Amino acid sequence: MKFPVVLHTDDGVRYGVTVPGLPGCFSAGDTLDEALDSVREAIDLHLEGMAEEGAPLPEPRLLAEYQADPDYAGGVWAVVEVDASRVEGKTEKVNITLPRNLIRRIDEAARIRGASRSGFLAEAARQALRKV
Question: Which residues on neighbouring strands pair with residue 18, listed in sequence order?
């Protein structure tokens, strides 16, 4: 998952980091690089806590939506990518039945994206569930 983060500094050296898409998730670092590294860890821990509570993973929003928020004015924006699959639980094998032509289309779309059939279907399911 990709998370927009906003960094603020008072002295141009040390940074505080806020993750607008995860209320209550923030971090800091003595340099810009340290701040970005520490916020990845903060996001991992935050997602882990959400999973333990049975909360759904957050729905991604566009960076522009966050940038329009005056609370984040003057910040430096970055996008941090984290692997959220570890908090979704153990994988399970399922047997599904789909029309042959649909499977071919799925496989072609997965190939174009560099994904497996399972990965493609999992992402499609996540997107559909966000709309529910």
Answer: 6, 26
CB-CB contact of 4 with 77 (8 Å): yes
SS3 115: coil
Q: For domain 1-88, give its CATH number from 3.30.160.250, 3.40.50.1220, 2.120.10.10, 2.40.33.20.
A: 3.30.160.250
Q: 91-132 maps to which CATH number?
A: 1.10.1220
Please write the tens of the pLDDT for every residue from 15-63: 999 999 999 999 999 999 999 999 999 999 999 999 888 888 887 788 8
By mean pLDDT, which of 16-30, 58-72, 93-107 is the weakest?
58-72
